[in-house]
Write a structure and sequence with these properties.
Bound molecules: N-(aminocarbonyl)-beta-alanine, zinc ion
Oligomer: single chain
Largest sheet: 9 strands, mixed
Strand content: 15-25%
Structural class: alpha/beta
Distance between the termini: 34 Å
């Protein structure tokens, strides 16, 4: 199958130029001056007036995650189809090593969830809930399987939390193996005390999720994670960074030359603690905005955008972890601590960040870098994914800057019964999305010949920066 994308403006993390893109056998075969590609295409896409960019990479998703007494509502079918509609062609999801069980069992379970279901390519990180001799030994097995990054939690006592000694042991082992440790950096033990105190005082509304998880808890976790990584002499990657003080800890580390990296998420750039308060007479609406770390007061937005512009933050991922308001978020009616944590987002990431481009917050090259190129480089996929270059997978998005989209639930494909951005119209939308050369989405319709199972597992390389 040969496809020509002609007349478009190609944008990579570093360059913007007029070029035709020639795709053959699922790979990019040539980038050529407009009108100069020889040969006959089976399919031609006219991208006049549009950007041609590498497919988005969302390196933080939770499809079908069992959490808070329920399970995230998107599976690898619905979640990856939704991702593709939003211009994301690769996800990296989190498999879980459950306490008392092996990483192998966790990885097998996640392969079983994804195989035969995913519509776009996918990789896995591994959540480590223990760093004992067996799990530390198993880290090398995971690397051989192409799972080269691990997530550890300072939060969620009794579920995911691991202590500093275990984190440090895992970091030392990661250093030997070339793995990357990623960190959920909120100090969970004191947070739990604040939660219990708030509940005992009768505070049950969703906003107390934020009021019991203060910014300092994240800043302190971030500082501690970076200190442990410095002692272990390894890189560290902070997931879902939400606030100014945590960002400052990352900046200080980077200024000292430490390989500290961080991602933020659209919800921390576009939503705020006010959303968690709900509406007058309907404070429960805030449950749809419960995620962890919590949404912060709106003044944090500017700091995070500045961090993205100035390379203090490297990636925008989604932490896509949707739960329906009905029956799922409702588990926490009358007790905010029982509201399952997470928000939908895998479909709307590029839309929201492109709005940031139109508002002058980042430029088009940085948009490509933080949504595709940087996650490809950090997580061992660059060359195959994350850029438009000869030999790379033809994961390509034709982005129409003149097409607007209203981010209402009715216009989206994520399997969840609300949109956090209901009523919000953004400029720009993908007109065509190609995954390994297959046109899968055209004008907001799934047009791929195959859907379930067309996505391939990506064996990722070790950390190479
Ligand atoms: O609210 C969130 N973030 N849910 C998913 C679990 C996590 O900590 O990433
Ligand atoms: Zn987390
Ligand atoms: Zn997450």
């Amino acid at each position: 199958m040969r496809t020509l994308i002609k007349n478009g403006t190609v944008v990579t993390a570093s360059d913007t130029f007029a070029a035709d893109v020639w795709i053959d056998g699922g790979k990019i075969a040539a980038l050529a001056a407009p009108g100069t590609v020889p040969g006959n295409a089976d399919e031609t896409i006219d991208a006049k007036g549009q950007y041609v960019i590498p497919g988005g990479i969302d390196c933080h998703t939770h499809m079908e995650l069992p959490f808070g007494g329920t399970t995230a509502s998107d599976d690898f079918d619905t979640g990856t189809v939704a991702a593709a509609h939003g211009g994301t062609t690769t996800i990296v999801d989190f498999a879980i090593q459950s306490k008392g069980s092996s990483m192998r069992a966790g990885l097998d379970a996640w392969h079983a969830k994804a195989e035969g279901k995913a519509a776009i390519d996918y990789g896995f990180h591994m959540i480590m809930t223990e760093a004992n001799p067996q799990t530390l030994a198993e880290m090398s097995d995971m690397i051989r399987e192409g799972v080269t990054s691990f997530k550890m939690f300072m939060a969620y006592p009794g579920v995911f939390l691991v202590d500093d000694q275990q984190i440090f042991r895992a970091m030392l082992r990661a250093g030997e193996l070339g793995a990357l440790i990623t960190m959920h950096a909120e100090i969970g033990l004191p947070i739990d005390v604040l939660v219990q105190r708030a509940l005992s005082e009768g505070h049950t509304a969703p906003v107390y999720h934020a009021l019991t998880r203060p910014e300092v808890a994240e800043a302190t976790g971030t500082e501690r994670a970076i200190a442990l990584a410095e002692m272990a002499k390894v890189p560290v990657y902070m997931v879902h960074l939400s606030a100014e003080r945590a960002l400052r800890r990352v900046m200080e580390a980077r200024d000292r030359g430490l390989p500290a990296y961080a991602e933020t998420c659209p919800q921390y750039l576009f939503c705020s603690e006010d959303d968690l308060r709900g509406e007058p007479g309907n404070e429960w609406k805030g449950a749809g905005y419960v995620c962890t770390p919590p949404l912060r007061p709106a003044h944090h937005h500017d700091h995070l955008w500045r961090g993205l512009r100035d390379y203090d933050l490297q990636v925008v991922a989604t932490d896509h972890c949707p739960f329906c308001m009905k029956d799922q978020k409702e588990l926490g009616k009358g007790d905010f601590s029982k509201i399952p944590n997470g928000m939908p987002g895998v479909e709307t990431r590029l839309h929201l960040l492109y709005e940031g481009v139109t508002q002058g917050k980042i430029n088009m090259n940085r948009f490509v870098e933080i949504t595709s190129t940087a996650p490809a480089k950090l997580f061992g996929m660059y060359g195959k994914k994350g850029t438009l270059a000869v030999g790379a997978d033809a994961d390509v998005v034709v982005w129409d800057p003149n097409k607007a989209k209203r981010l209402d639930k009715a216009n989206l494909h994520m399997r969840v019964d609300y949109s956090p951005f209901e009523g919000h119209t953004v400029p720009g939308s993908p007109s065509h999305v190609l995954s390994r050369g297959d046109l899968v989405v055209k004008d907001d319709q799934w047009v791929g010949k195959q859907r379930q199972g067309r996505g391939q597992f990506i064996r990722r390389a070790t950390f190479g920066l």
